[in-house]
Please model this.
Amino acid sequence: GPGGRGGGQAATPPTPPMQRAAADTTPIKSRDEWKRKVMALVDEWLELKSEEEAELTFTELRPRGKPGEAADNMVEFALEKVMENCKNDGERLGVAQLLIIMINSGNLAPVNFDGPVYMSAVEYLSDLVIDIPTIFSNLAIVLAELIKIDVVELPKLRAQCEKAPWFAEDKSPAVKLFEAITAKLKAISATSDQIGNAQTITVQMAGM
Model:
């Protein structure tokens, strides 16, 4: 009757875990292919938010490149996605969370952020801003999170801006980037030292 067990049907069997195909071990040769693989990993993360899946996918990519290559490409193309292809700030924060998970699990190290931050974010900043007016706040969402945990260092980021090809003619992209980073560091309760350092660099660059 009502409230009974419905004629004693068998319980639904548990869903079997997702079967992973055997890992592809072919070496990855081109930047385009690295980009596709990293973007697919980031998209999967944004959709599923599964740390386990993301780390597994990355672990399968690592032996397909030279030492450090998967990690460097991970950072470079994740940042490229943050600048150009994320739908909103929630997705950008999601990418920052993924990078932090990868750092905490030992898959990424601070050294993997040096070249890739320059290549993806700094080197062409003055060109990128023409197409992406929100680029400074887009980048600051992720960079501030990385500065807060001391993976990206403000003096190093400043030095990268100063060696960028556009800096001698127009410092405004660097000033705007550091302004945006300062605002984000305040918003995420970074240390007063971190906020103070970002403010100082902004003021010094603006006065150069």
In short: DSSP finds ten helices and no strands in the chain.
